[in-house]
Design a protein that fits this description.
48% of the residues lie in helices and 14% in strands. With 507 residues, it is of the alpha+beta class. The strands form three sheets. A four-stranded antiparallel β-sheet has the order 8-3-10-9, sandwiched between helices. It starts with 9 loop residues before the first helix and ends with a strand.
Length: 507
Amino acid sequence: MSADIKILLVAALIVAAFASPGLTQKAPRAPAEPVSPQAKTETKIDTATVAGAEHPDSTAEDAASERVVDGDEESGEEQAVIDQRASAKSRPKPLALGQPGRLDGIAAVVGDEIILLSELEAYAYMRLTAMGQNPDSVDTKKLVGDCLSDLIDNKVLLVRAMGDTTINVRSDEVESALNNHISMILRQNNITMEQLEAQLRIQQGSTIARFKTEMRRAIREQLYKQKLQQGYYFSSKINRRDVERFYAKYADSLPEVGESFELLKLSLRLETQDSVRQAAFDKIRAAKREIDAGMSFEEAAKKYSESPEGASGGDLGFLAKGSTTELTFEERAFSLPVGRVSDPFETRLGYHILKVEEKKGMSVKLRHILVRHAPTEGQREALLAKLDSLRAAVKDRAGFEAAAKAMSVDNATRARGGDLGWLTLLEMQPSVREAVQGLEAGKISAVVSEGNVFSIYMVSKRADSRRLTLENDYALIAEKAKDIFAQQQLLDNVKKWREKIFIDVRM
């Protein structure tokens, strides 16, 4: 079993998945790597969310080594203690802020929230660990003061978020995050749930049930803060001048991006013949007429539907909101009253009629009739042959651009001759990545299917790594600038909120 399982620091475990934004930053700084809007909050350690997090203590480890274990657990737990004590030698010496023999104490009160001495110790310990230093080599008073200020800022943010009536954290969100985090612990440490529980007993004298309870509280608090922070990010507005100023200031600090490709794209759509579409429409209208005339929806589905569930009367069961990529279908399903039958409507799959049988929360129980209007196999083969002939005929970028301007159905790139700009491998859809990854500059990919759209891609240039520029990477740089500006706005507001919230420092 790994000697580096830091169950002892409950806070450290939660930090791995739930961290607050840069509240320790005194001025904006460029993020170290591209950050997506969904990950805007993962930039700072936060131990304030864990009450009672303990620091590594040699006395506790010695006591653990003397603990008597029963049955088959004995050898495994004894070895874990040996490994733990060996790894402790390379870790910084813990801080001890409380009085000897005292279980715990309160470092500060923020509104109705408290910061325990044990939380402060755990946070300071992690700061020391990150720096690879011991308390003897740093200004301990300043370290503790800085850490306490950080934790107060986090509590201020929490108090503000929990007082915001527009923010709601659901229990299922908490449970999902908890399960994901425990799975991450097991996976990263290559242990089982039983081994995790044994480590909790050895290192903390705790149980998995207590661990989960503490984690739920910490996760719920963190989600409140994340949602408040995300609100600032999505409401933040920047213009090109802001982005240019940001780039001028941070250009040298921005990281290089990994393997990248400058791509051009040409897309053709597989269209259904008018005669096929009309025949499908006539069939779906006939189904609706029979339902209006008194035929049951189940019988109409068995008679007309071309989907697999047609044989069972069109029963789709419950559809959860957001579970389908067919937005038109979902909008119709959730807008219909219970018992109502929709008029025929069209999606890329064909023509549909829906009946809503029941609504339950964010789900709706449906019956469904589908009449497809898919293109024929002959049409598909003809379109693929056309793209293959283009691949053979186009010899250079100019030729590809001319073809894309003349026939591509991709409206976002057609006017630019199919130019997609530079993309990293991670930014590409898996099917596109697979098609272009092995190509040299100047080569054209095999056909990539994207629904009823078929595309080919030319690799204009490729690079193992490159620096970000406004010319090639404006959108990515603008995202980084927006992230920094949103963080600064949040920092400024936290300072204001501190003046309005009751804060009592007790050390």
